[in-house]
Specification:
38% of the residues lie in helices and 7% in strands. The protein has a three-stranded antiparallel sheet, with no helix packed on it. The protein has a two-stranded antiparallel sheet with strand order 4-5. It binds heme C (2 copies). One heme C (HEC) binds next to helix 3, helix 4 and helix 5.
C-alpha cells in the first residue's frame, strides 16, 4: 500500500468514526488491521504537538520498518547515551518473539503502546481499535535474514566456526538461562546495571546499539563483558572472559 497522505487520512478517519468492519474472512481482517496500524504508526496526530509519530523514533531502516534511530530518549528529547533516566530505543523487528514490553517489562504490548502515546507523546487517549491495529502492525514486522542461524537461534551446520563456538559459550556461560531460545529473552527482570529491567531479546542485537537500557555501551563487546561478569558473580564463580571468548560470543550474537 502506498503511504500517501490521502489514503492515510482516509484510514484514520474511518477508524475514528466507525468500528472496523469485520472482513469476510479473518486473514482479510488481519491485513486491514496491519494496514491501519501502519497508517497510525506514521501518524503525527498521536502526539500532542503533531510533530512526532511512532516512526520518528522507530523509522524505516535497511528496508525494514519499525527499526530504531539508535537514540536514547527522555520523553521526546534525545539525550546523551547513558544519561540518567534515558532509555535506548529498541528495534521492533521480530517483536512477535517477545513476552514483555518496554525496558520495565510490561506484560502486554497494548499497555506499553498506550503509555507511549499518553505519557511520552502526550497524545489523546487511544481507542482499543487503535491499540489493536498498532499491535497487529508491530507483530507483522520481520527480522532481517539470518543465514548462519535457524529460526530458533541455533547455528546451522555450515555457520562459521566462531559463531559455533560462540553458541557453545552462550550455554557454558549461562547466558541462555535468561536469554532463552527461541525468543532470546525471558519473562523476568534483573538489576544488572542499576535499574531492574527486563531480559531483552537478543535477536537483531547487532543493530540496536548503543546497548543496555540507558544506551551506556557503544560496543556490543562491552555489554557482553558486563553480562559475563554479572552472571559469573551470580553463580558464585567470579570470572572475566578472555578476548577470544568475547570475540566468539559477539560473533554468535551478530549472527542473530
Ligand atoms: C521519542 C521517541 C519514541 C517515539 C515517538 C515512540 N517510541 Fe517506542 N520506544 C522508544 C523508546 C526510547 C523505547 C524504550 C522505552 C522504555 O522501555 O522505557 C520504546 C519502546 C517501544 C516498544 C517496546 C519494545 C520492546 O521490545 O520492549 C514498543 C512496542 C514501541 N516503543 C512502540 C511504539 C509505538 C507504537 C509508538 C507510537 C505510538 C512509539 N513507540 C513511539 C522511543 C519512541
Ligand atoms: C540473570 C539474567 C541474565 C543473564 C544470565 C544474562 N543476561 Fe544479558 N541481559 C539481562 C538483562 C536484564 C539485560 C538488560 C540490562 C540493562 O539494560 O540494564 C541484559 C542485556 C544484555 C545485552 C544488551 C541488549 C541490549 O539490547 O541492550 C546483551 C548483548 C546481553 N545481555 C548478552 C548476554 C550474554 C552474552 C550473556 C552471557 C554471558 C548474558 N547476556 C547473560 C539478563 C541476563
Amino acid at each position: 500500500m502506498p503511504k500517501t497522505p490521502s489514503r492515510h487520512r482516509l484510514l484514520l478517519s474511518a477508524l475514528l468514526v466507525a468500528p472496523i468492519p469485520l472482513a469476510a474472512n479473518s486473514s482479510d481482517h488481519e491485513t486491514d488491521m496491519v494496514e491501519l496500524g501502519r497508517a497510525l504508526f506514521n501518524d503525527v496526530n498521536l502526539s500532542a504537538e503533531g510533530l512526532h509519530s511512532c516512526a520518528t523514533c522507530h523509522p524505516t531502516t535497511m528496508g525494514l520498518e519499525g527499526h530504531t534511530t539508535n537514540n536514547t530518549y527522555i520523553g521526546l528529547d534525545i539525550v546523551e547515551d547513558g544519561a540518567e533516566g534515558g532509555r535506548s530505543t529498541p528495534t521492533l523487528w521480530g517483536a512477535y518473539h517477545r513476552t514483555q514490553w518496554g525496558w520495565a517489562g510490561l506484560p502486554t504490548i497494548e499497555q506499553n503502546i498506550r503509555g507511549i502515546i499518553v505519557n511520552r507523546m502526550r497524545g489523546p487517549e487511544p481507542s482499543e481499535e487503535q491499540l489493536a491495529a498498532l499491535t497487529a502492525f508491530i507483530m507483522s514486522l520481520p527480522l532481517p535474514e539470518t543465514p548462519f542461524v535457524d529460526e530458533e537461534g541455533t547455528p546451522v551446520a555450515d555457520a562459521p566456526e566462531d559463531v559455533q563456538r560462540g553458541f557453545e559459550l552462550f550455554y557454558e556461560a549461562g547466558c541462555n538461562s535468561c536469554h532463552m531460545q527461541p525468543g532470546m529473552e525471558s519473562t523476568a527482570v534483573y538489576d544488572v546495571a542499576g535499574v531492574e529491567v527486563k531480559v531483552p531479546s537478543l535477536w537483531a542485537v547487532q543493530h540496536t546499539g548503543p546497548w543496555f537500557h540507558d544506551g551506556r555501551y557503544d560496543a556490543l563487546e562491552d555489554a557482553v563483558r558486563t553480562m559475563w561478569v554479572y552472571q559469573a558473580d551470580r553463580i558464585g564463580e567470579p570470572s572475566t572472559p578472555t578476548d577470544e571468548q568475547l570475540a566468539d560470543l559477539v560473533a554468535y550474537l551478530e549472527a542473530l
